[in-house]
Write a structure and sequence with these properties.
Elements lengths: L7 H9 L3 H10 L2 E2 L11 H7 L1 E2 L1 H14 L5 E7 L5 E8 L2 E5 L10 E5 L2 H6 L14 E5 L2 E2 L17 H6 L4 E3 L3 H5 L6 H7 L6
Parallel strand pairs: 1-2
Antiparallel strand pairs: 3-4, 3-7, 3-8, 4-5, 5-6, 7-9
Helix pairs in contact: 2-4, 3-4
């Protein structure tokens, strides 16, 4: 990791987030969901710390930075959907298995314990919980991991300006299909209970 770029007060917060579980808890309970009332943003982890709000992309960046402070590589995984927004995860590997940290307005699209043997298995764990307001299951593809070291030159962890280069890059890389076309045609709609469960805690 490059020289620690954070201020003393910021480092004090990261010191408390000394496990992936605590990072997720912080995103869930100390950071509001960013509904972008003044227009689209892609704020750095420094801005998330200061403003205490984040959407999916900003939460993933914060998660990757916090994981980096613990010695993990800062990795993102992009989940690609149809008729829906993409979702971005900060992923980590512990004892040979993958887990994820995520910020979402839907309860089923957040943390995953590091129990998944591969990235496809991790991505598939989001499938049943990934749906749009029309109750369509919308997850289709997943990306390869992206190491955010490639963006250290734009100071992605502490930039005051939006770091749009990162989500723009995620749209350019190869994604792998999760579901066969024949299976897609036969997908059922989300039932009432699962739909309601996903909306628990929704920021409106």
């Amino acid at each position: 990791m490059p020289r620690d770029p954070f201020l003393a007060a910021e480092r004090a917060v990261f010191r408390r987030l000394n496990t992936p579980e605590k990072i997720q808890h912080f995103l869930d309970h100390d950071v509001a969901y960013n509904k972008e009332p003044d227009g689209p943003t892609c704020g750095s982890p420094r801005r998330v710390l200061r403003e205490r709000k984040a959407h999916c992309m900003e939460g993933a960046l914060f998660g990757a930075a916090a994981l980096r402070m613990l010695g993990y590589p800062p990795l993102l995984l992009d989940l690609e959907a149809v008729r829906d927004d993409d979702h971005v995860l900060a992923i980590f590997r512990r004892d040979g298995s993958w887990g994820a940290i995520a910020k979402s307005n839907y309860s089923g699209l957040r943390y995953r314990e590091p129990v998944y043997r591969g990235l496809r298995e991790l991505a598939m764990s989001y499938f049943e919980h990934y749906y749009n307001p029309r109750r369509e299951k919308t997850l289709r593809n997943y990306s390869r991991p992206v190491n955010l070291r490639r963006f250290d030159s734009i100071h992605w962890m502490t930039a005051e300006e939006d770091v749009w280069a990162i989500p723009e890059y995620l749209t350019t890389i190869r994604h792998t299909p999760l579901v066969a076309p024949r299976a897609i045609r036969r997908l059922a709609r989300v039932d009432d209970r699962l739909f309601a469960a996903g909306l628990v805690g929704l920021a409106r």
